[in-house]
TrEMBL record:
The keyword ATP-binding applies. GO terms for cellular component: cytoplasm. Keywords: ATP-binding, Nucleotide-binding. One of its GO terms (molecular function) is ATP hydrolysis activity. The keyword Nucleotide-binding applies. Coiled coil: none annotated. This is ATPase. It holds the Pfam family AFG1_ATPase. It comes from Microbacterium mangrovi.
Length: 341
């Protein structure tokens, strides 16, 4: 962590080399100890336990054995597919299960990263060099597989196709536009049209449930008045590095930093301070802010803010659009981060 004191995110322009990007392809700190045993399946949603069993078997390199009765033959076990795709709403533990696969699989070479991190690596190293880097790896975990950018999607699916052909196993979580593909659901056919060459490589596993953070998305993120904000920032800065920025300035700055570097933007921080929060009007800015919040949540950096509640930064039009699922996930995380100790 950086030295105690106040810093400004708008003054940070982090640079990341290809080697540093590769070294960072591990589960985020909050999932360092994630295991199948620590995943608490909700009995009200049997798909959670079923997914846990399936993925545990996948990590062991085995297909789940169907249970047969005393006088019944067990059903034939289908050959294990090289990839699993976890589909479900936000807060049902998909990333926890993905990290559990990573930790449980006895692999010599394995990688864990978000879709954005992998596409950024291709941009930094070039496609062929990225293929060479991952060729021969045992496992590739991809969190928040994006379908927003057709170009990035096809580059990634081409890369995954080459890796599967060489024996690499894949595990991914979905992040699809719900108004196009169905609220909280993963439409396999739409995905298969995007990755037509990969259609036989993935087993889609549905995980139902409610947000484990137990926070309604129509709840409110914590807001401080200016005096309380100043006190919170300065108190925290006595023992740790704390950022303090005007919300509008940060949003403008995020456009100048590639999303793959957002984790470096908040590196070493013990708290993020945002003054004068206002509703976002530009969808590109909103999506960059979502990516920023994802990294802050991964790093578990609490947020203190003034102005409009952060759960209201995405307007009704955005919440009714194709990126609704992303915005709802971000709102859930913003409520958690602004109320975190």
């Amino acid at each position: 962590m950086d030295s105690p004191g106040i810093v400004h995110l708008v003054d940070r322009t982090p640079q990341v080399t290809g080697d540093e990007m590769v070294a960072a392809l591990v589960p985020p700190p909050q999932f360092d100890g994630a295991t199948f045993e620590t995943y608490q399946a909700d009995a009200a949603y049997p798909s959670q336990q079923h997914a846990k069993d399936q993925l545990s078997a996948f990590a062991r390199g085995q297909a789940e054995q169907p249970r047969g009765g005393l006088f019944r033959r067990p059903k034939k076990v289908e050959p294990l597919k090289p990839g699993v795709y976890l589909d479900g709403g936000f807060g049902v533990g998909k990333t926890h299960l993905l990290a559990s696969i990573y930790h449980a699989m006895p692999a010599r070479r394995k990688y864990f990263g978000s879709f954005i991190e992998y596409t950024a690596l291709v941009g930094a190293l070039g496609y062929q060099n990225t293929v060479k880097l991952f060729l021969g790896s045992d496992l590739l975990c991809i969190d928040e597989f994006e379908l927003d950018d057709p170009g990035d999607t096809m580059v990634m699916t081409r890369l995954l196709g080459e890796l599967v052909a060489s024996g690499t196993r894949l595990a991914a979580t979905s992040n699809t536009p719900p108004n196009a593909l169905g609220e909280g659901r993963f439409a396999a056919q739409d995905f298969l049209r995007e990755i037509h060459a990969m259609s036989d490589s993935f087993e889609t596993i549905r995980i139902d449930g409610t947000d484990y953070r137990q926070r309604a998305v129509d709840g409110a993120a914590a807001v401080l008045d200016p005096g309380a904000y100043e006190a919170a920032i300065h108190d925290a800065a006595a023992s740790r590095a704390v950022s303090d920025d005007a919300f509008g300035d940060l949003v403008t700055h995020l456009a100048k930093v590639h999303p793959s570097r957002y984790i470096r933007l908040i590196e070493g921080l013990g708290m993020i301070g945002l003054r004068d929060v206002e509703q976002l009007q530009d969808q590109s800015a909103a999506l960059r802010f979502v990516a920023f919040i994802d990294r802050a949540y991964d790093a578990q950096v609490p947020i203190r803010a003034t102005g409009r509640p952060l759960n209201e930064v995405f307007g009704d039009e955005m919440l009714a659009g194709g990126y609704r699922k992303k915005y709802l996930r971000a709102i859930s995380r913003l409520i958690a981060l602004t109320t975190a100790a």
